Amino acid sequence: MKHFSSRALNILIAMKERSVLEPRLLRLAKATLLIAILLTPSIWMLKVIPPLWKDVDAYNQVTQPGVRTILHYAPLYCFVARIPFYVGQAIESFRGATTFPRGSFFIHPVLSDSGVFVLLLSQHLALCAAAFHLICTSSRLFLARIVLATAWAINPLFYTFAQCVGTETLSMILMLLLSAAGLRMIRNSRKVPRKDWFLLGTLLWLCILTRHINAMLAILLPLAFFLLSAHRLVMIPVTCSRLHRRWRCLQVKRDLRNTALTLAVGISCVVLAHATLRTLSYAVHIPYHSSVGFTFLWRLKFLATLPAETRNQFLDKVAKNTPSPEVRKLISVLRESPPEDQPWDVLAFMHKAQVALFTPETEAQEERFNLVLNHTARAFLYPPDEIFLRAVGTDFVKSQKTRIPDVVNHLFGSTTFYFSHPETMADCASLSTFREKSATDILAVFKKHSYFRHAKRFDYTGFLIFWFANLSLLAVLAKIRKEDIAAVFSYATALTLVGLLMMLANCVLTELQPRFTLPMWELTIVSASVLFGRTVDCLSKTIADFRF
Questions:
Q1: pLDDT of residue 8
Q2: Of all helices (H) and strands (E), which one includes residue 174?
Q3: 398-415 confidence digits (pLDDT tens)
Q4: DSSP 258-297
Q5: CA 164, CA 79: separation in Å to the nearest integer?
């Protein structure tokens, strides 16, 4: 009897262990399948597509020391990208092709095929991890996760950026992680753990250190919580139950408190990022200055499209906006520079303006020139003239017509910059992307693979219509099931609005380029993923109710 009891106990223990083990294995199998779907385009690209370069900007970001990699380009990617280059150089040294790199490598890195491959591999793996995390956060249903992972895999936008050297890639990955963190916070807004607040602040700080325009992400969570509180405030008068009205009032107070807290976190991250830039500048003995004025010069390329008389009248108005004689002198140089209906060489204009303002040219004059550029940008921006606003509006409308293949093609096109300006990217000559290749060969890769062009008839406006249809369907399902989806609604709306605001800010500060539409596309795609995940959750519950 004792033996029988012992045997029965062992059987029960084995069954319990098996029941625990099977769900773990099932979860592992599901996760493996999702990761396999997300990694498939990455594996194909690493094998077939050459490394892409965001023209001379990418080259300067990963090779140049000093002012450009700290002040003009945000410093995070400029430094982090050198770690894979170091690993690649170490691999080359083990093969006997070169000596083992020293610490000075991070100041003056050497480009190699192995280093570039390690960089792209790390970017693809990071993209897979970030997308997997966001998809799992968007929905608990495995079917919804499979659909989302498949939709992400057939979209070439993110994978092409992962195949490209440039700050936008790291910015894209960090924005995915930030979006997932924000979604988790707004879902659990009743009591947000401290670690989530810390994670949100860290990710936002890193985003700003990757690209300056990402400072606008500081308003994402405050806007989402504000929209959520506004929705609940509007619903109070139409709530019948007195107890329910009181509960909604408490929710509004909590959401407004979260609005203030997230706004404080956002402002703190912007201040901390600014302090980080100043500290880095001080550490390497570089006078700190804003690079807004330098960037804004590219915005002024629209002057070349204006008739001479209209341009002169416009510049006369701008000159009245500043008391600085140096700014007015620069505007007078600007009046003569952009030939009508011809491309404007911004760098040539900068040299001409600097010679006209300061003779002889010295490092101290360089600092003063940057200050003059910043004051010039302020004169154009405040107050903005109708002509300037019309140029901004024209670019913003163009951005809404941008298609994903346009952005992808732009990255292939920017890679061909080397072949027309090889002297500006001298260290790239030995890389496989450019070695014994031509611009035609690079562009042929884009034309050869239909993966990059299958969505060529689908612009951003069309995707926005799809997003709104998803929003409406979720509203109908929530109405049927009487579920509270205000948090998801508010967050999805905030994501899309912030993406559009970032696009508008880009149009204000510089000329439109297809790659600048990435934050707009990314945040709207994330928003659509969040809505889709919640829609499938509601739909599955509705179907289950009907079956029951």
A1: 55
A2: helix 167-187
A3: 999 999 999 999 999 999
A4: HHHHHHHHHHHHHHHHHHHHHHHHHHTT------HHHHHH
A5: 16
